[in-house]
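TA notes. Do not distribute before section.
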Amino acid sequence: MNQKLTDYLNSVFTPYDGVKSVTELKADLLSDLQERYRELRADGKDDETAFQMTIEGIGDIEQTILEVANLSRSLERQVLTNFSSSNLVKSDFAGVTAHKGQFIGSALHGSDFSGADLTGSSFKSSDVREANFDRANLTDCSLSALDLRNASFNKTILVRTNFSKSGLDGAKFTGVRLTDVTLSMTDLRKTIFEGCSFDGVDFKYSDLGGMCFDGQTFIGVTFDKAALNGASFRGATLKNVSFQSGFTFSKKYYLMIKTICFDGATMDKLTFALLKGMEADLSKVTVI
């Protein structure tokens, strides 16, 4: 009859094979069931009656197993996605899926995240120099207070990605569509953007002095309170783009706007009117 109890538990637990906490629960439960069965037999119950009373006495075991398995898997996922305070220099994360991963205070210099799905992950206070994020999915990721010098973002998926207070000298964004991305309080003077489009991007308080945005597309972008001395938008397309100083009559900000090159750019009437009011040189701009 012990084998019959074992077979019964095996059938119930089969869907959860490999989950450590469930395996431990199974072993404990089998021991308890065997003891209960022996007590019923000692009370004069026949084999079949003792068996039925034993298994009926454990209640809704399948619901209990499911809850234990879900908790265990949740904890296992947390362990597998928490890489904080780790030495991961030149690590291979290419193609992995690590949703809501934690990379806080970690050494990730030269690591390969190409093609990885890092949706919802957090990178903070880490060394991510020369990391490869080509074709990676960084949707809803937070990248703050990082050293991202010379990192590569070729065709990376950037949706609601938050870059703030990070070093991006030499970082290269190629063929990327930035959607609702925040690049705030960041020095971008030595960051490279090639063949990119910017949709709903927020550059507030960032330094974009001397930046070259030639030929790129900006829709619903905010450059409010950003430093744009000598920036170039030659041949660029600008629609519903905001340039605000935060101070209605800031002479210094107006002088800065005059240093921006818009030659050959195409823009909508609202953006044109805003820049015209700031006395930007729009003599070679096409209005749509």
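Switch to the second chain here.
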Amino acid sequence: MSLHVVIGFGPAGAATARLLAGRGERVKVIGRSPRPEEAGLEHVVLDATDSAALTAAAEGADAIYQCASPPYHRWTRDWPPLADATAAAAEATGAVLVALGNLYGYGPVEGPITEDLPLEATGPKGRVRAQLWNDLHDLHEQGRIRAAEVRASDFFGPGVTDGGHLGARVVPAVLKGRKVQVMGDPDAPHSWTYIPDVARTLVRVAAEEKAWGRAWHVPTLPARSSRVMVGVLCEAASVPPVGVQRLPAPLLRMAAAFSPLLRELQEVRYQFDRPFVVDSRAFTEFSGEQATPLGEQAAATVSWWRDRSATVG
């Protein structure tokens, strides 16, 4: 039985930890807050920017999965120390480090986004994501660590709530048959990456030596607009189609005055105002892994939200 250390227990970290536990692996989850006991998971409360504490917790690990993310509005301040501590733990323990990334580092591009595009983001959050990978790749090339990055588009699926554009602002409304408001152009093609596919990719990359030293896009289905995705969710929920409209700009500006998240989203508005399409063929060709069929994604998402509503309500 191998030891796997998962940093962060958001949607991706939780899915990764549970996938590993389901395979009979020993899993240690690192987080800032206590968690309820869960079969197969050992929760360790510590600050992951504390390099010494993180290294001690990761002693004997075969792989470290960096799935944590600082608050959105504190990325530029909080990401570097977290990344430095994680890399130090990987170097000290010899564990393979797989970092979960996103597509911000590329900045606005024309056409499908592939892994060989340069990281030319101009906004602060995009620049910090690009620098995190450049630093990690340099350490790998120097032979100090063994590392890779797994990049996903916008999360979709079970466990995705306030942090997902098809999460808390959409699915509960669909289940109640209410109109949905979305960021940007509701008819622009957009790539949505399913959370269980993120977990499978992280685990597969950690296990494949030939996958180390580079970045990979999670297998992701062809891009579909927000309007189409809402229709798919309605069908999965067996409810009549609901209206979909763009969140009005004045309302968005008003909300942004009170929400750090919405304020910071202005940097990446380009992702929603025009086509935003990820090409994930490289990892599929390398590994044979495919994205989960859309019907399964939508059914599992609707089922999770219904279970959550029954529990909370």
